[in-house]
């Protein structure tokens, strides 16, 4: 990673000036705060901390809901607070396409909650997609967990290979934005449905074969308090042969520097408070959460945001920052 530019250094200097002068009690409080924020020294005998709350599991954290409520109005602004998510969306589809090409679905017929002639016409408008990817048109069912304003859900519903997308989120204001935006495109009717709910409130399919072909967790794992329990609850929602596709951030010094200090506190590319470094999940931890629970064919793709160019695949970067992680249910 290149050294910070002079502009970044100047911003950092301004940030530092805002911290002083401080009284002795204020300095003590600041020291305690920084101790909680800064990552510890990593050694072979002292791995990264993995403390999680294991008492009463709930995937919905009130603080996270409050934060994303404040961002709801800007969700579909191309240069707003969700800009990096818009830029990442093509890479999400690239990975899912690769996964489905490796293991095409063979799920039973699915009956969405509602249908319309426009949706049917949209679904069958192009038959070339099935030929080029090996995925039949109107065949893939998605569950987009933590869908936010619907950036991925809408784009997935527009694919000719998609049968239906169910998108869920526990934040009312954000989901209202998603629904309002979807209403602007009549072709989405019957192919996309939003639900104000959490994972633990979703019914578990009585028959595993009735699960979803693709379940997505984009920028979600790092916002829940107990990722292991959360993933256990997600597993029954994926049909055998289906895919669980995630994106998250590794917990390293570099990720703290880039996502917390520079992106949030200095450059404000991402709204302050969006990420809690202590909740970042390393690739080996994800593998550990899923080990021995009926998953295989793991795919890992490291990605890096390059200003002016967008997100780019960078081999090995999954060890230090943002990455995609996909597994197939046996």
TrEMBL record:
It is found in: Mitochondrion inner membrane. Pfam families: Methyltransf_23. Gene3D superfamilies: Vaccinia Virus protein VP39. GO terms for molecular function: 3-demethylubiquinol 3-O-methyltransferase activity; 3-demethylubiquinone 3-O-methyltransferase activity; metal ion binding; polyprenyldihydroxybenzoate methyltransferase activity. Keywords: Magnesium, Membrane, Metal-binding, Methyltransferase, Mitochondrion, Mitochondrion inner membrane, S-adenosyl-L-methionine, Transferase, Ubiquinone, Ubiquinone biosynthesis. It is a peripheral membrane protein. The keyword Metal-binding applies. Its EC number is 2.1.1.64, 2.1.1.-, 2.1.1.114. It is an enzyme of class 2 (transferase). Its cofactor is Mg(2+). Residues 105-115 have a biased composition (Pro residues). Pathway: Cofactor biosynthesis; ubiquinone biosynthesis. It catalyses: a 3-demethylubiquinone + S-adenosyl-L-methionine = a ubiquinone + S-adenosyl-L-homocysteine; a 3-demethylubiquinol + S-adenosyl-L-methionine = a ubiquinol + S-adenosyl-L-homocysteine + H(+); a 3,4-dihydroxy-5-(all-trans-polyprenyl)benzoate + S-adenosyl-L-methionine = a 4-hydroxy-3-methoxy-5-(all-trans-polyprenyl)benzoate + S-adenosyl-L-homocysteine + H(+). Mg(2+) binds at residues 219, 222-223. Residues 102-131 are annotated as: Disordered. One of its GO terms (cellular component) is extrinsic component of mitochondrial inner membrane. S-adenosyl-L-methionine binds at residues 92, 146, 169, 218. Its main location: mitochondrion. Residues 116-129 have a biased composition (Low complexity). One of its GO terms (biological process) is methylation. Belongs to the class I-like SAM-binding methyltransferase superfamily. UbiG/COQ3 family. O-methyltransferase required for two non-consecutive steps during ubiquinone biosynthesis. Catalyzes the 2 O-methylation of 3,4-dihydroxy-5-(all-trans-polyprenyl)benzoic acid into 4-hydroxy-3-methoxy-5-(all-trans-polyprenyl)benzoic acid. Also catalyzes the last step of ubiquinone biosynthesis by mediating methylation of 3-demethylubiquinone into ubiquinone. Also able to mediate the methylation of 3-demethylubiquinol into ubiquinol. Component of a multi-subunit COQ enzyme complex, composed of at least COQ3, COQ4, COQ5, COQ6, COQ7 and COQ9. This is Ubiquinone biosynthesis O-methyltransferase, mitochondrial.
